[in-house]
Amino acid sequence: MTHTCFDLSRLLVYRNLLNDRIVRDLQSLGVQGAAKCDEYALAASLISWAEETGIAGNIAENYLLFQLGCDENIFSSTAGKTGGQPGGSLSKAAVHDITIWKVLLNKGLTQQFGEELQAVINDYHPIQASHNKKTGKFQDLSTLRDLFFDVTKNYTPQEVVLALGRYYDRYGCGRLAGYGAFKWDSERRELAGIEYTDPVQLKDIVGYEYQKAELVRNTEAFINNKPANNVLLVGARGTGKSSSVKAIANRYFDKGIRLIEIAKTDFKHIPEIMAALRQWGKKFILFIDDLSFEEFEAEYKILKSLIDGGIEVRPDNVLIYATSNRRNLIKETWDDRSGNELHRQDTINEKISLADRFGITLFFTLPNQEEYFRIVEEIAHRSGIPMSVAELRAEALRWEMSHSGRSGRIAKQFIDYLAGEVAD
């Protein structure tokens, strides 16, 4: 049987792409004797994809590159677990596929459309560029485009495969490649990507330099396979605990850090979550926000077992970062202090020992008056608020007194209010 050199049915490791209708239709455009697809329907699908992802340029080529970068197969997943070096035989199979893929991409896909469609597909600009983790990393397709279209370097299939291994090691594949943060879907019993994540950066959090530096140090140790600790961030509302964890995840996305947000109601699923994370070649921060337990809640025992290591130990690629408004995570009652001395001490030790399981505890204290003013001034400067320091401080003091005290969150709300007033 005679095959065209870009016949995707010959793929070995990228066979998942055969299930994609747009990929099949793009291939059929250049195959003589093949059943032709509806060019207008295909163009409409490409336009919808471009608007959904915010990816501009040649949307036919970029769609294929996007699928190549996302595809979860034995080569891409192994590359993500082996530092981008999946092995000789598997790489040879990938070279076979990339040889086919290069021909498909270089056959002038846009020219296969009618003239009126070429102008649309060749240089498409969506209304709004992507700004979230789902597609934000893939909006920069320059690495993949260079591998296939840089005529000055003219990479061989072998060189492309080596570069793809490094690409998958850096960005992951499948759901990992598309998202920077996940949550547990209790109905489907699987991790679901969070499409719109908070883009906060560490520099956005004014003050708390020691706390931020400790998070950076611990996270970088984790990334570099050095000993790292679970972290408990303790402090009042609005002091930047949760934002600090999110900022760490944003900062180290390119280093392989992914955030897994779980609630107390998900604790019973922790064994399933750990089993899933163990199979992936990335580093995961299990993020538990506002961690605390009432006296009748027993879920804390699951968390203690995870931290200490029960029968099944916590995977090496998982750390726990938790925030709480109180140092003692489990509420004490008067009953805990009744009874004989031995029982009383055992009960109290049981309840306060959870916090001790975290190797690092960082305290986010409420700012004093001068620190609060400095936070306000810094955020106002970044926001371009045209107000003198004296006037700004006076207004900030009035805002503080009419709200719930001093914190970074209160300061940000005050500046947002001023920005709205200036805009009017």
TrEMBL record:
Keywords: ATP-binding, Nucleotide-binding. GO terms for molecular function: ATP binding. Gene3D superfamilies: P-loop containing nucleotide triphosphate hydrolases. InterPro entries: AAA+_ATPase, DUF815, P-loop_NTPase. Coiled coil: none annotated. It comes from the Bacteria. Residues 227-368 form the AAA+ ATPase domain. The keyword Nucleotide-binding applies. It holds the Pfam family DUF815. The keyword Oxidoreductase does not apply. SUPFAM superfamilies: P-loop containing nucleoside triphosphate hydrolases. PANTHER family: SLR0930 PROTEIN. This is ATPase with chaperone activity, ATP-binding domain, diverged. It comes from Sporomusa ovata.
